Amino acid sequence: MFELKIVSHFAAAHQLTMVAKKCENLHGHNWKVEVYLKGDRLNDAGVLVDFGILKGYVKEIMGRLDHKFLNELPYFKTAAPSSENLAYYIATSLQEMIKEPGMAVSRVTTWESEDACATYFPQ
Questions:
Q1: Which end of the chain is more exposed for a tag (fewer CB within 10 A), N or C?
Q2: How many CB atoms lie within 10 A of CB 7?
Q3: Which residues of 56-80 are buried (b: 16+ CB within 10 A; e: fewer)?
Q4: To the nearest 10°, the Cα dihedral for 42, 99, 59, 69?
Q5: 31-41 as b/e, with b when 16 or more CB fall inside 10 Å?
Q6: Could you give the CA distance from residue 53 to residue 68 in angstroms, rounded to a whole number?
Q7: Catalytic pick from 9, 60, 67, 96?
Q8: CA atoms lying within 13 Å on the CB side of residue 103
Q9: Chain centroid to CA 123
Q10: 118: which strand partners?
Q11: Is 29 a catalytic residue?
Q12: CB 3 within 8 A of CB 106
């Protein structure tokens, strides 16, 4: 099994409810996002997938989130824009984009600060 990792970033605001009072106020983060892709076979070029292709997929997803008020995005109308749900959203969005056979998202980690993150592991 092989695993690739790329790191990306986006800045966005959100407002959470039913958490610490401070986070219920409108606030923003500069999120760091780690995306991992796994697969059991390499292509003819000897790679799982070209990093450029993977970066392109992630860039498209980051474009949906960057400099947005996350609560107003369609997905987050029914799901709190928490770090956990952001990781889930990014993972499922990326998995839908992957056309290469035998590859899957293995995990996505969203860092809302240098010392706080959430990771989603698709089944």
A1: C
A2: 12
A3: ebbeebbebbeebebbebebbeeeb
A4: -140
A5: bbbbbbbbbee
A6: 24
A7: 67
A8: 22
A9: 16
A10: 110
A11: no
A12: yes
Q: How far is CA 112 from each of CA 3, 23, 41, 64, rounded to the nearest angstrom?
A: 24, 12, 33, 17
Full pLDDT tens readout for the chain, 123 residues: 999 999 999 999 999 887 667 778 788 899 999 999 999 999 999 999 999 999 999 999 999 999 999 999 999 999 999 999 999 999 999 999 998 888 999 999 999 999 999 999 998
Catalytic residue list contains 23 = yes
Distance separating alpha carbons of residues 43 and 103, to the nearest angstrom: 11
Numbers of helices and strands, H then E, in the chain = 3, 4
DSSP SS3 for 76 = helix
Q: Which of 23, 34, 84, 117 is catalytic?
A: 23
Could you tell me the two tokens for 73? 């995005």
Euclidean distance between CA atoms 83 and 96, whole angstroms: 20
